[in-house]
Amino acid sequence: MGNQTTANQIERATGADEISTLGPAIYVYSRSQAIADGVLVDVTTMSRQAGFTVPVALTSAAWSDCVEWTDDDSSRQGHQDEAGRLWDVLWMAHLAARRAHGEVVAFELYRVPRGGRGHMPRRVSLHMHIGPGDEAEPVITLMLPGED
Questions:
Q1: In a 3-state reduction of DSSP, which class is residue 69?
Q2: Domain count of the fold of the chain
Q3: CA 50 to CA 122: how far, in whole Å?
Q4: Residue 113's domain spans which residues?
Q5: What is the mean pLDDT of residues 80-109?
């Protein structure tokens, strides 16, 4: 019995028998649900213009930090628009993807942070995750470091 207990402990610690230990998934949150809920922002249309051939989305946090821009922001901080800010993110992601090796690629860009009265661009890091979509097709998600 001692050897069996040790084997079970090793399986649990390494995840080797995760499916049989945990059973089937009770609920799976799909990418399409995340887009519908606003957790992800689908930017596939413009991403195709930037050279991507698979669907691309940004997390709502990455969108808020790097793309979102209102008329109030323009009046306080200088004229910009969301389309231009999104293009900057997608172009830098495209350049990073061309030299990518692996599922997660870090890249940087400069953007004017929202809020306050600042006009100077600041560097921000983003991560590009390349993985399976709802039907196991390749998709790209752009996110802030620390998001998953």
A1: coil
A2: 1
A3: 22
A4: 29-143
A5: 93
In contact, 22 and 105? CB cutoff 8 Å: no
Determine, yes or no, domain membership for 138.
yes
Written as six digits, the tokens of 101 are 């090796």
**70-105 as b/e: b if 16+ CB within 10 A:** eeebeeebeebeeeebbbbbbebbbebbeeeeeeeb
Report the DSSP beta bridge partners of residue 92.
Answer: none
- Taking Cα atoms as reference points, which of 75, 87, 88, 80 lies closest to residue 123? 88
Residue 51 Cα distances to 14, 27, 44, 48, 85, angstroms: 40, 34, 10, 5, 17
pLDDT of residue 142: 98
In a domain, 23, yes or no: no
Q: What token pair was written down for 65?
A: 């930090």
pTM of the prediction?
A: 0.79
pLDDT in tens, 14-51: 444 445 577 887 888 899 999 999 999 999 999 999 99
